[in-house]
Amino acid sequence: MNRFPDRYRKVVIAELTGDFRSSTRVVEEAWSDPGPGEVVIRNRWAGCNAIFDKNLCRNKIRYVDVKPPFDMGIESVGEIVAIGAGVTGLQDGDPVAVTKLGSGYREYQRAPASRVVRIREATPEILTLIPTGISAMVGLERVGDLRGGETVAVSAAAGGLGHMVVQIAKLAGCHVIGITGDESKLELLRQLGVDRPINHRREDLQAVLAAEYPRGLDIAYDSVGGTVFDAFLENLAHRGRLVISGHTSDFDQAIENVAQPRIYRKLYWKSASVRGFQNQAFPEFFDDAARRILQLYYSGRLRALVDPTPFVGLESTADAVEHLLSGRNRGKVAVRIG
Predict the structure, then answer these.
(1) Taking the model in full, what pTM does it have?
(2) Is 210 exposed, middle or buried (CB count within 10 Å of its CB: 0-12, 13-18, 19+)?
(3) Is the preceding peptide bond at 131 cis, omega within 30 degrees of 0?
(4) Taking Cα atoms as reference points, which of 199, 97, 108, 109 lies closest to residue 155?
(5) Which of 130, 156, 166 is nearest to 47 (CA)?
(6) Domains contained in the chain, CATH given
(7) C-alpha distance across the termini of the chain, in Å
(8) 74 close to 101: Cβ distance less than 8 angstroms
(9) What mean pLDDT is predicted for residues 99-103?
């Protein structure tokens, strides 16, 4: 008797409406054996990347041309159930993590063995590490030139990416300022080690940074944009670095024309810089960061926060996306596949 199903389910973009729920469908796909150098994985959990997902539904990812039907989901964890010819070092039943566009929101996936990361157990916490924690580590260390004992500000600090940035900066001995827009998340930020939590909707972020940090910010790690970005830019230290890892506050809005002095007037006299960062643009650092981030987690030096809201089954992916877009999440939003 064949232990594999003849067909399995996955989420695809069926039409480009600009909205995840109305753009996507759960469809069936025929089973396919692994080719040479490939494995088949039974997905157990998938990570939610709501802004990326929504931008795919608008065909607004610059390096992806979405032509429906288009497979959805990026990161997942599960177990290997079939191994192709020539694959070494992996066995049937091994728990693994995979980061590959079109591989997450589905029950089974074929993946190159070279893209597979072995883990101890296929739990949702791993999704906060691979690739989210890798983004935090590479963004801070390689793009932000992280050094010990610096002052680091982090926007969306209680989110899936932000809570990793906070902890990696603290492990490097930095003073960390954690920004949130939710008063109820301030205590969580303190528990994560944030030295100065700030609710930017209750306090004037620009005024707080200017008054309490007159020397400025050595690193500002921003995924929010808008007025948070403006405050970070205004308060960079001498040789400070502002890392742009997204702009959630206005990603789906018309481009705002902001009348202010050109950015070089804010940077030149400080020898400061603004640096864009997308994880996939730095593949050469992925393997080392994956090894180190897992080691930190398994040794108990890093907390991996998964949002407690349950999302079960492929039909719940739209709910997960909308929950993350609402900003109510604490940690990584994960969908349980099976």
Answers:
(1) 0.93
(2) middle
(3) yes
(4) 199
(5) 130
(6) 7-128+305-336 (3.90.180.10), 132-280 (3.40.50.720)
(7) 22
(8) yes
(9) 95
